[in-house]
Each structure stands twice: as C-alpha cells, then as structure tokens.
C-alpha cells in the first residue's frame, strides 16, 4: 500500500474518531422527582347488630302452638365496609323434623306474618309460609331482595313476626323442630354503563 493511501486512511480514521467523540458530549440541565403511590380496593362488609342470645340464635322461639303469633323480633344490618351496597338479599332455607327427628313439612305451618325493612313491609316475604318462600326462591333461582342502596356506616332495620298458622288437624306437628337459616347477601353498587 502506498504512503498516500496510508495517510488518507489515517485521516479518515481520525475524522471518524473525532466525530464520535464530539457527538457524544452534549451538555444539558435535568431534574427528576419521585412519588410513591398506592391503589386500594374498597370493601363490602355486612355486619349484624342486636342479635345477642345466650344460645347463639338470632331468634329462638319455643313451645309454640297453632294460632300463635310470635313476638316481634328486631335487629339491624350495617354496612361496615367502605363501598355502597347496591342490593341486599335474604336467602331463606330451612330443615324441619318431627319429634322423632325425621324430616317433615313443618315449614308449611310457619308463616312470616310480617317482615319490614326500615319500616316498609316487604311484600315478597310477608304473609307467606317458609315453604312458599322456598318454592318462590327455587322458581326464580334467586333470593329475595330486601333493599337497595345502603351507604357505608348506615343501618338497615329488620322487623319480623312469625305465626304458627292454624289449620284443621295438626297433631302431627307436636314436638316438631324447624331449623331456619337466613343468609343476608350484600352486593356492590354497579354503575350503569355510559
């Protein structure tokens, strides 16, 4: 290779090196700030008040006979969560047994004479036997709606009166027992899509 070619190649290499060095040295001011952030979901928390009973029942009625109207039982459900409860449902289920602990139809003899939610009669449950309520629930495939729109820290007062209905021959119901399970289900408020 000639000296002339070596000099040109050296100059080109030097120019490329200088352009790389000068292109990488840009000065500018900068600053940054950091923040710490958190996202928390709200809670649906349904509580119950005024239900203390030494035997662990919300209501416990004994020695009832056909024609008896039970004393009114009142308790409160409360939204202990941070979100609005959109709907509150009651799922009623029972098992009934004769005096020999064999399953029977005692639920057809016990009626909700009146059920009020915040002073308003619930027509879906009032004046129906527990058997009828169970049949309606199974047909509709959903529990009974009690109330809508419960804000956090607000109470819902439930008043219920039961009746042992009177029909002609009810001797087979002597000594019977009915185990009633009420499950209250709170569902969050769902906003309509815009």
Automatic annotation (TrEMBL):
One Pfam entry name: Peptidase_M73
Superkingdom to which the source organism belongs: Bacteria
Keyword Membrane: yes
Keywords, ordered alphabetically: Membrane, Transmembrane, Transmembrane helix
InterPro entries named among the record's database cross-references: Peptidase_M73_camelysin, Signal_pept_SipW-depend-type
Residue spans crossing the bilayer: 7-29
Protein name, as recorded: TasA family protein
Lineage, opening ranks: Bacteria, Bacillati, Bacillota, Bacilli, Bacillales
């Amino acid at each position: 290779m000639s000296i002339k070619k070596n000099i040109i190649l050296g100059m080109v290499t030097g120019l490329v090196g200088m352009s790389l060095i000068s292109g990488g040295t840009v000065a500018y001011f900068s600053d940054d700030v950091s923040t710490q952030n958190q996202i928390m979901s709200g809670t649906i928390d349904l509580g119950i008040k005024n239900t203390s009973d030494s035997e662990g029942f919300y209501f416990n009625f004994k020695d009832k006979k056909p024609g008896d109207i039970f004393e009114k039982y009142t308790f409160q459900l409360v939204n202990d969560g941070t979100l609005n409860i959109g709907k509150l449902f009651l799922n009623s289920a029972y098992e009934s047994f004769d005096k020999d602990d064999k399953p029977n139809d005692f639920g057809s003899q016990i009626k909700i004479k009146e059920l009020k939610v915040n002073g308003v009669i619930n027509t879906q449950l009032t004046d129906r036997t527990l058997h009828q309520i169970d049949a309606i629930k199974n047909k509709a495939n959903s529990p009974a709606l009690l109330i809508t729109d419960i804000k956090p820290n607000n109470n819902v007062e439930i008043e219920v009166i039961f009746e042992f209905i009177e029909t002609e021959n009810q001797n087979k119901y002597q000594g019977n027992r009915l185990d009633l399970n009420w499950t209250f289900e709170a569902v969050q408020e769902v906003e309509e899509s815009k």
